[in-house]
Design a protein that fits this description.
The chain has 428 residues and is α/β, with parallel strands linked by helices. Helices cover 44% and strands 11% of the residues. The chain folds into two domains: 222 residues, Aspartate Aminotransferase, domain 2; 117 residues, Alpha-Beta Complex (Aspartate Aminotransferase, domain 1). The protein contains 17 helices and ten strands. The strands form two sheets. The protein has a seven-stranded mixed beta sheet with strand order 1-7-6-5-4-2-3, sandwiched between helices. A three-stranded antiparallel beta sheet has the order 8-9-10. Helix 3 packs parallel to helix 12. The termini are far apart. The model has no long low-confidence stretch (mean pLDDT 94). InterPro entries: ArAA_b-elim_lyase/Thr_aldolase, Low_specificity_L-TA-like, PyrdxlP-dep_Trfase, PyrdxlP-dep_Trfase_major, PyrdxlP-dep_Trfase_small.
């Protein structure tokens, strides 16, 4: 028996043709677009992941190795992993696409069987900015520490949140995570050494989200091996600060990294031909890392100038971040954002006042941002007077005093920090 084929209805000639595709850009148009992006980035203070690869970097990437890194056959990826592992004094390293992935891989690999808890700072990226990854991937609860000084967790504060007994009502602590730098502030190395020693007494491993560890190195003069010494595992971002196009590195013992590789596959995070990305990261280690002290200089320059104008600084400017609140001058962060864009082509994040200086920032953008603040200040004298009346002269003077101190990267007493801690990535 012959089964008849289904009839096929052909489109009539009167059917409208699909709209034509936009013609591809010419080489000249692409070059112009990239040049415009470079200028835009030099005036963008939202984050240090906003940097773009240079033409020279892309030229080098063309000749990168082209092996399959999932099969562990890509030479430039292997070389990058071995290089950073040696620099950090760790046995092995794993190249991944992002710092969120390396953090979550580390946490998942450390934790074996629920129930368990992770102790970390309440402001930590792993806690508030990784889409609930600790709970989702590792089925762990998080015990958050609220540092009394507002700067960094102490050993005693961490141990207060650790569960180390057999009470069945609570989840035992199986990991502590710290972040260095956190909001641009450097975690004191001596306290990290104390913390590692204390946690060893309870067999609790210590992981570091070192997305901006490079900034801590540039600030303190420590080597990478010294900075990483207190930790069992470390995540290092290669696109924040260093300006690589993509990537982060997870460091740890050889067996740990082998197991993390398994979870990376499970997460869908393997990169096949990763050589170009790995080579770019390696080049940035050589070329961008030495430039980080300049970003700290520019951040301090901006902090001092804004504090002198009366802008409230919410955190000490220790590395490449300036946390600002212009309300004492009579206008909001959103108003400053709009004025900076309109008057100087400068991009700021709002409503939170995090200003991040990266290595591609033009120093003239620093000066022009200060000038925008001065212009708004001159227009809002009545609003500024009302603000001072509302908070009181004594509190206003204390805010100004602390802001001048924060501009020098110093602090005394408790740091209250910015009102808003959750990010609003990408919003203009």
């Amino acid at each position: 028996m012959t089964v008849p084929l289904p009839s096929v209805r052909l489109a009539s000639s009167s059917t409208a043709a699909p709209p034509p595709l936009r013609p591809p850009l010419s080489s000249k148009e692409r070059i112009a677009r990239n040049q415009a992006k470079r200028v835009q980035v030099s005036r963008d203070f939202r984050t240090d992941t906003i940097t773009i690869p240079t033409d020279e970097l892309y030229e080098l990437m063309k000749n990168a190795s082209r092996g399959d890194s999932v099969y562990d056959e890509d030479e430039d990826t292997i070389e990058l992993e071995q290089r950073i592992a040696e620099m950090a004094g760790k046995e092995a390293a794993l190249f991944c696409v992002s710092g969120t992935m390396t953090n979550q891989l580390a946490i998942r690999t450390h934790l074996h069987q629920p129930p368990y808890s992770v102790v970390t700072d309440h402001r930590a990226h792993v806690h508030i900015s990784e889409a609930g990854g600790i709970a989702f991937h590792s089925l762990a609860t998080t015990n958050a520490v609220y540092p009394r000084d507002g700067h960094h967790m102490t050993v005693e504060e961490v141990l207060d949140e650790c569960v180390v007994d057999d009470d069945i009502h609570v989840a035992p602590t199986k990991l502590v995570c710290v972040e260095n730098t956190l909001s641009g502030m450097v975690f004191p190395q001596s306290e990290l050494v104390r913390l590692r020693s204390a946690l060893d007494s309870f067999s609790i491993p210590l992981h570091c989200d070192g997305a901006r560890m490079w900034e801590a190195m540039a600030k303190t003069g420590m080597s990478l091996s010294e900075a990483c010494a207190p930790f069992h595992t470390v995540s290092l971002c290669l696109s924040k600060g260093l300006g690589a196009p993509v990537g982060s590195i997870l460091l740890g013992p050889k067996d740990f990294i082998r197991r993390a590789t398994w979870f990376r596959k499970q997460f869908g995070g393997g990169i096949r031909q990763a050589g170009g990305l790995a080579l770019a990261a390696s080049v940035c280690l050589d070329t961008v890392l030495p430039q980080l002290p300049r970003t700290h200089y520019l951040a301090t320059k901006l902090a001092r100038a804004l504090a002198a104008e009366g802008v409230q600084l919410d955190l000490p400017t220790e590395t490449n971040m300036v946390w600002i609140n212009p309300e004492p001058l009579g206008f909001s962060m959103t108003e400053l954002q709009e004025a900076a864009r309109a008057k100087a082509g400068i991009t700021l994040g709002a409503p939170r006042g995090r200003v991040v200086v990266h290595y591609q920032i033009d120093e003239r953008a620093i000066d022009e941002l200060v000038e925008v603040v001065r212009e708004l200040k001159a227009q809002r004298t009545e609003e500024a007077r009302q603000w001072e009346e509302q908070v009181g002269l004594e509190i206003a003077e204390e805010i100004r005093r602390k802001s001048r101190l924060y501009a020098e990267g110093q602090y005394d007493g408790r740091i209250e920090g910015p009102k808003r801690s959750l990010p609003a990535y990408g919003k203009r």
